[in-house]
Amino acid sequence: MIDTNRDGDRSGAPLLQVRGVRKAYRSGGGMLEVLRGVDFEVEPAGFVSVIGQSGSGKSTLLHLMGLLDAPDSGEVHLAGNRIDNLPSSRRDRLRNTDIGMVFQAYHLLPELSALENVLAPLLVRFSIAEWFRHKGEARRQAEALLDRFGLSGRLHHKPRQLSGGEMQRVAIARALVGQPRLLLADEPTGNLDEASGAGILDTLCELNHTDGLSIVLVTHDQSIARRADRIVRLVAGRVENA
Amino acid sequence: MYTLLLCWRYLRTRWIALASVISVTLGVATMIVVNAVMAGFAHEMQSRIHGILSDIVFESHSLSGFQDPQWHMEEILRAGGDDIEGMTPTVAVPAMLNFQVRGQWVTRQIMLIGIDETTHAQVSDFGRYLQHPENRRQLSFGLRDGGYDTIDSQTEDQQLATRPALEGAGWPHRRMRVERERAWRQRQAELQASEQAGGPSAGPVRPVDHQVDAVLAETSPAVATAAAPPGELPPTAEAHPPNAPLDPFRAAKPEEQGRVFDPSREQFTGIVPGIGLASFRDSAGIDRFLVLPGDDVKITFPTAGTPPKAVTDTYTIVDFYESKMSEYDSNFVFVPIEQIEKARGMIDPQTGLPSVNSIQIKLRPGANLETVRDRLRQAFPADMYAVSSWKDKQGPLLSAVDMEMAVLNILLFMIVAVAGFGILAIFFMIVVEKTRDIGILKSLGASSTGVAGIFLGYGLFLGLVGAGAGLALGLGITWNINRIRVLVEWCTGERVFDPSIYYFFRIPTIVDAWTVAWIIAGAVGIAVAASVLPALRAARLHPVEALRHD
Ligand SMILES: Nc1ncnc2c1ncn2[C@@H]1O[C@H](COP(=O)(O)OP(=O)(O)OP(=O)(O)O)[C@@H](O)[C@H]1O
Ligand SMILES: [Mg+2]
Fold first, then answer.
1. Does B413 share its domain with B530?
2. Burial of B375 (0-12, 13-18, 19+ CB in 10 A)
3. Closest residue of B to A110, CA-based?
């Protein structure tokens, strides 16, 4: 389902590469250096956990990889191409087509139904004319994803009518509907009870194993991190491979 | 695509934004109504003015006028060519009108206008403004045998007989009045005779006196000539003024010396005074007349010589002129031009050629007013003749109205602009409220322009809704304004639109499509402009910060 062999791919090269990334925030009088030269890679079809203490900069790193923010220095490469310095329109496009993101607080759009939320990336991608051409296919795809996550009966529910676990599954479906190469998840189980959290993790593992989707999972929970192929620890703004 | 969907969803869930549009709606509605009414009044006024004045007025600077109108008209025809459809000479002179109402002499300052009976109605709407249907077709200065309109012929709603007094006007009224006067004088003479004979004291007679007076006042207020010193009436041949009654079948020839003028069968020279001179409108909208067609009045005017001498003549009212411009209706009195030329000594004794003050010119439909006027100005020396179009004559008035409309529009547009600030504030609130959603959209790859588009589209939609509702409301009010007026009057018991002031029965309105289009465009423009700042703010939101927002 996920096509990892796209144009510009250099075979053998890591899917995502973060090189010497630095990020500092101005806080009060001085600068708070959150990331001080992070080097980090994700192989195609890899599953990496990033752990670290609260405030260690995990979310900050994830936002940089997801092109939601720009590093002060350093580079981010996707499939061998530098992406952090692209013009904003190209970055918007990449974010839409190549990267899926899942957040701790789900971040669904409250005015849209579950199905519409899942369709949102495609609504963003297509112009009005294109949308009417792709509408049927897009809907089928979105319904298939929701079905796969056990939500076929809740297509037209608004987010506030869903449980936390259901909302997170809708959010994952939304992240996948655009067929990205990379899924970035920021504490996706943080707000969930153990059972639903385990369900979400099972889903992610399954996506990684059966669909070959590359995943970066941010967490501060050691036990969750262990589900990944590899664990990366953020300490004092640098990476320690554990 | 998401732009549209979200725009729509936000609309459906944020009805509060519509509240900000109410002021747009009200502003648009007010502008449409005010413009329609103003345009209605302006149009009414213009057409009245145009109806009173002919297209082009050719006049002399001096009050004594210029000689030989026939020659001048031929010259004008040569200069104006095909563009000229009709011409008529007029003589205008300031004068004084006197008539008696219940024994009191009423004096009015007037403009006495000598017109040609047959051609005057051809150059202006003069004919339309008369009260007798026959006179409207072709004016005659002979008194009519009744048949005057009791309903204002110029209003659309024809149910209301607002002029019951005109019912018996004309010869019947004149005969009745003369009859009463005779009876009254006879009684007076008897009383006098009995007093002189030392008969019963005058005491018990008094009530009768009052009674008769009251009866006279009731039926015909103008007849109370009884108070005039006896002997003045009936008019004898000497009292009969030199002006010849026009109707040869009814009136006596002035040369028939020694013949007694019989007012019940004869008339003086006919005049058509403005209706405002002879009547007033009471609060119920009924016209009360001080004098009626058939009554005689006195007019004093200056002769043409230097220094001018005052001449007084008696005339018989044959009709009323009602242009619905109170300025004219309470000022103009029309008389036959030959009569006034004669009375003022404007006819050259040697050549027999008359003088006139002005020549009214009507142009062929479609002819350019300004070019014809300029051609005439070139053909005649400017130091002797003034050539002006009807627009020139009323230029200051017309431009004052235009100015008024412009100022009013600016003020009203401010209302819509204020509404714009309301939209701005509410949109800012919505952007703040939706900050996280904006972050989510950006994380999904939405561009800044796309996000801005949501709010611009939102503003556009609100503007369209507001202006559309305003359009509906405004047109609704405009088209029903007279019904609304009646309703308001009924509720408050007060007259909103007093016909005794405005002389129309209904509020005139004109909806100009272009004006409406501009108002709508302006309102929608303001709504969009007001959403630009919030949209920019939404576009500039940093995605990470926006996602953190709660
Ligand atoms: N916009 C900002 N301005 C100033 N400081 C910031 C900003 N964003 C993040 N920080 C700081 O950067 C540090 C790293 O934040 P980040 O959200 O990446 O931590 P985290 O590892 O995700 O923590 P948690 O596990 O609690 O989510 C924190 O100390 C935070 O206070
Ligand atoms: Mg975090």
1. yes
2. middle
3. B437
